[in-house]
């Protein structure tokens, strides 16, 4: 099987690596020549644990290559994965312009039968539209199938998730296309659900929206816990012991960010509106998430008076640990708000860097100690391992005031309080 992966971002690069690991010949194609050059040299253009060694291993094996030559790459492939971005438009709908470009590229260069696999997250009905776009761009008629095969990996655990998926969802119009996909994934040890393309597309949005709902549920509950003097972590633990509820995705904090939950929930809401349907629960999920971080800021304001002229150490910029991705990161929103309120913000992150628009107003520090020097308060926004082993006794002396606002509820409240810190998390301690 000669597989082409179009779009070598987070998902495309991971997909290409995993398919090569499964033994297939894989080519990665991207319009960004800089990314292709780096990948060819074995240097990932993003931070993701395990990707660099596997990239080098697969380049050495000869099963993986990268190119920017669209025509040659499409002609040589029998199976084509579409992994380009589907960013949000201002109205919340998914921007399908990159998907359309790729579909037309495939159509123009279709020299023999190809199986086209949509891995990008796309709204219900996109598989049909891709088939139309490929068909309309053809110069001479050749057969092809388009299937939906959504991806469920998490950033920071991308390789593990892609190598050990919980399930594989295949949305196919024909039995033969579904069977080709099952053959491709035959070495994967997980349930494979073959369904219609529209169902597969909705499963992806429904999964992300459900996870976002769990987070907003526990976050909204955390606000009540604050008022009642109840530790939300214990509530989450207590309800999570019921296997019907489960412990995962019940970690209260400053809210969910990233390139997917905010955009995918917005896109599903848009789809519902387009079809005259309302998803009121999901609208509330968004509303809770939009305001969640403000509650921690409010706690800090109550302690500090106001932020003007105060130094705040911001620990973590990435939307979650083990990634350098700051797309829709709540940490960035908090930094912006603090700057607006004239705080002096000193940020630290082991991998992520400040967005260009904050470089002039926020300092990026190379160490935690530097960020905390003379600070009136620490805001922990991303639960990197490094922050769990901070020598608090040592940094306390260098701080102006020992105030900690833990936006991820991961620090030891009891220990820090005993040490003389003022500690506040989300949902009572
Ligand atoms: N990042 C994640 O954790 C996950 C993302 N997804 C979905 O996967 C899709 C891709 O996401 P990411 O990998 O994060 O995006 P990304 O932005 O990291 O990568 C997209 C890549 O596509 C390339 N590209 C755009 N147009 C192209 C064209 N015409 N031909 C060739 N290459 C082209 C871009 O240069 C870029 O390198 C999105 O739909 C996303 O929702 C799904 C599961 C997880
Ligand atoms: O479609 C996607 O792109 C992906 O989106 C998420 O993955 P990801 O965004 O990488 O990261 P998550 O681990 O899901 O975290 C998302 C956000 O939720 C927050 N979160 C997560 C869990 C929790 O209990 N509480 C909480 O606030 C995280 O801090 C982070 O900001 C899903 O978990 C993946 O299954 C999906 O494939």
From TrEMBL:
Residues annotated for NAD(+) binding in this entry: 30, 35, 86, 121, 155, 263, 327
Keywords recorded for this protein, A-Z: NAD, Oxidoreductase
Reaction catalysis annotation: UDP-alpha-D-glucose + 2 NAD(+) + H2O = UDP-alpha-D-glucuronate + 2 NADH + 3 H(+)
Molecular-function GO term, any one: NAD binding
One GO term (biological process): polysaccharide biosynthetic process
Sequence positions that bind substrate: 152-155, 204, 249-253, 257, 320
Pathway: Nucleotide-sugar biosynthesis; UDP-alpha-D-glucuronate biosynthesis; UDP-alpha-D-glucuronate from UDP-alpha-D-glucose: step 1/1
Gene3D superfamilies the UniProt entry points to: Cytochrome c1, transmembrane anchor, C-terminal, NAD(P)-binding Rossmann-like Domain
Domain of life: Bacteria
NCBIfam families: NDP-sugDHase
Name of the protein described by the UniProt record: UDP-glucose 6-dehydrogenase
Organism classification: Bacteria, Bacillati, Bacillota, Bacilli, Bacillales
């Amino acid at each position: 099987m000669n597989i082409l992966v179009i779009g070598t971002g987070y998902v495309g690069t991971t997909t290409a690596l995993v398919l090569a690991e499964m033994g297939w010949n894989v080519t990665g194609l991207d319009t960004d020549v800089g990314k292709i050059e780096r990948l060819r040299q074995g240097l990932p253009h993003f931070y993701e644990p395990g990707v660099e060694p596997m990239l080098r291993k697969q380049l050495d094996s000869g099963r993986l290559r990268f190119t920017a030559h669209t025509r040659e790459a499409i002609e040589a492939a029998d199976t084509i994965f579409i992994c380009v971005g589907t960013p949000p438009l201002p109205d919340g709908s998914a921007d399908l312009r990159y998907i359309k470009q790729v579909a037309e590229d495939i159509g123009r260069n279709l020299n023999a039968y190809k199986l086209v696999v949509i891995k990008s997250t796309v709204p219900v009905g996109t598989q049909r539209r891709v088939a139309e776009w490929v068909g309309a761009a053809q110069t001479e008629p050749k057969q092809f199938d388009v299937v939906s095969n959504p991806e469920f990996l998490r950033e920071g655990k991308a390789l593990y998730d892609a190598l050990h998926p919980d399930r594989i969802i295949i949305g196919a119009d024909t039995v033969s296309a579904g069977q080709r996909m099952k053959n491709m994934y035959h070495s994967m040890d997980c349930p494979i659900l073959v369904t219609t393309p529209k169902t597969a597309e909705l499963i992806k949005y429904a999964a992300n929206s459900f996870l976002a709902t769990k987070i907003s549920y526990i976050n909204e509950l955390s606000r009540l816990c604050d008022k009642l003097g109840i530790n939300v972590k214990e509530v989450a633990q207590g309800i999570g012991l019921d296997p019907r509820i489960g412990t995962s995705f019940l970690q209260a904090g400053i809210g969910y960010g990233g390139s997917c939950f905010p955009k995918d929930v917005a896109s599903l809401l848009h789809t519902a509106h387009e079809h005259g349907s309302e998803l009121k629960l999901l609208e509330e999920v968004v509303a809770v998430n939009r305001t969640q971080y403000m509650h921690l800021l409010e706690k800090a304001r109550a302690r500090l008076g106001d932020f003007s002229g105060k130094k705040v150490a911001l620990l973590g910029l990435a939307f979650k640990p083990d990634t350098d991705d700051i797309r829709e990161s709540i940490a960035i929103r908090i930094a912006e708000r603090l700057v607006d309120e004239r705080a002096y913000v000193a940020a630290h992150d082991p991998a992520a860097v400040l967005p260009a628009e904050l470089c002039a107003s926020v300092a990026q520090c190379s160490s935690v100690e530097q960020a905390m020097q003379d600070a009136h308060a620490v805001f922990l926004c991303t639960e990197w391992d490094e922050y769990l082993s901070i020598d608090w006794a040592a940094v306390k002396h260098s701080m102006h005031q020992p105030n900690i606002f833990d936006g991820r509820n991961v620090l030891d409240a009891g220990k820090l309080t005993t040490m003389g810190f003022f500690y506040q998390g989300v949902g009572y301690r």
